[in-house]
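Researcher: Last one for today. Full complex below.
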Amino acid sequence: MTAIDPVVRRTVSRIGVYVGVCVATVFFALPLLWLVLTPFSKHPSYKATLDGVSLDNFDRLLHNPQLWRSLRNSIYLAGGTAVVVIVTAALASYALSRVRIPGRDQLLYALLLLSSIVTGTAAMVPIFLMLYQLNLLDKQFAVVLVLSGGLLPAAVFMLKDFVDSIPRSYEESARVFGASPSQILRHIVLPLIRPGMATVGVWSLVQVWGNFLIPFILLSDDKKQPAAVVMYTFYDTGGQPNFALISTFALVYSVPVVVLYLIVNKRYGFSFQGGIKG
Amino acid sequence: MASVELRALAKQYPNGVRAVDGVDLTIADGEFFALLGPSGCGKTTLLRTLAGLEVATEGAILIGDEDVTAQPPGDRDVAMVFQDYALFPHMTVLQNIAYPLRIKGVGRNERSARAAETAQGLSLGPLLERRPAQLSGGQQQRAALARAIAVHPRVFLFDEPLSNLDARLRLEARTFLKKLQQSLGVTTVFVTHDQAEALAMADRMAVMDSGRIRQVGTPREVFQRPANTFVANFIGATPMNLLDAVAADGTLEFDGFTLPMPPAFAEQVRDGDKVVYGLRPEYFAMSSTPEDGAVKGEVATVENLGVSVLVTVEAGSQSLGAVVPEADEPALGATVWLRPAPNRVLLYRADDGELVSS
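Model: Here's the assembly. Have a good evening.
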């Protein structure tokens, strides 16, 4: 067998890589393509084609009260969780960053590790039982608390890193001028960690927006369910998925998150560099 | 405006390290006082303890005859300027300068007016609406100073105020700070590791080493008569010659040569005493012809210092440094005679490094 010229071999492998990447890209892009095209199609189906352009789907969607209510529920759950997580994580990360207690770092890593291993799904039964005993089943604010609890370890971990990067000389300077700890927190620390808080907030919001299992199990009243759960029920009487409804609603459902991401990205940039020089 | 007194002050950390080890110090009202020392000598810890950022483990701090040892920083009426200035990046320069007044509860209009006035005094008028990141290093320093001045404290504390400036700016800032302190008349304590800076700016200074004060005095005293070999070595642009010698019969015997006993110490030193001979390189006169009371040696290196030249001369087993005018620059390997100026010689005891008392 003759030796293959290394240049030829390199070119062929390059072509192979590009072809592979293209196939993978198409594989992932296809559903997104479906999501963007189908709502505008006159005859929506499982194929990603544009079969006659119309806005009828959106028209029908606008007149469906159940769907708007579910979007409101999503906003309440996601927004509520984001607020709870931001406030608690900001206070916790500031304290953990500045106070030196023995075992602090180990505690943080243990928290992070445990929260990754024991996911919401794994803990679902104990959580359900706990809420049942507390008489908090079918209450939206209880879902907010459960979701916050699940997101907090990671949020605290993220924010603490951010707070660590802020030099202590700002706080010490304020201390010498006579500022109380609460004044230092409000005037100096919180404004400086705003980008971090925004990132944690958006991250929490996105996590909750798409969360199906926890609201599905903890809320029994259909009227309280968020959009992610409601979409699960879009089947017509024959048991066939209602493509029109699913695709249109999915598109509308994903828009707020994308818009929010763009706004926050413009304002804060999602960077975790403290990088602030006095 | 107040005097500062430290009595047997000590700061010990939980791991046993005594960063400040029994310091007694009195700083007069209105004095520009320097804490000088190498890294890790405890000068910054001492300053922070004065400010209240660190709690003293022993001793007392008095500001204006009032014992403030137990008081939190805000009650001590001091203002501190940090090495990195710590200007709050999310506030404008005006808001930064007005911040201490805001903490004290001054109303918005009044504190803005007072801040603007202080800023004008430091030529910061046109920069008031900028953020700290938009200022140059020198402007940032003036803004930090304005913030400290605006609140009219009793004592200023500066932590390495010039370290963050580039070399050229540093010299200008030295003069600027000195003039400012003189016009304000506020007691100022500043920390530095740069001995030239301390000598140039301070009214009096303390040289520190390992948590203790090794000498307190005016720059002239510390420069001309260092109390021990540590201070002698630390002060001075060129390192002082510190040579081991033994007193013998009216002369000093070194390893390889002898020099006459300096008259100022003749009474205090007995034959057989081991001493350390201290003389600044600037006080050696160099000549190419033999001289009485001089050391003969060979030129090993020549370093250009600008207007003068630092010549290292090997004599016996010792290396001696001499600073001579550039016109007298010798050739490498040349034989020269170094004659010490007799009234500039200092003798230290070999065992503890302290000046032989005279």
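Chain B is about 25% helix and 35% strand. The first helix of chain B runs from residue 43 to 51.
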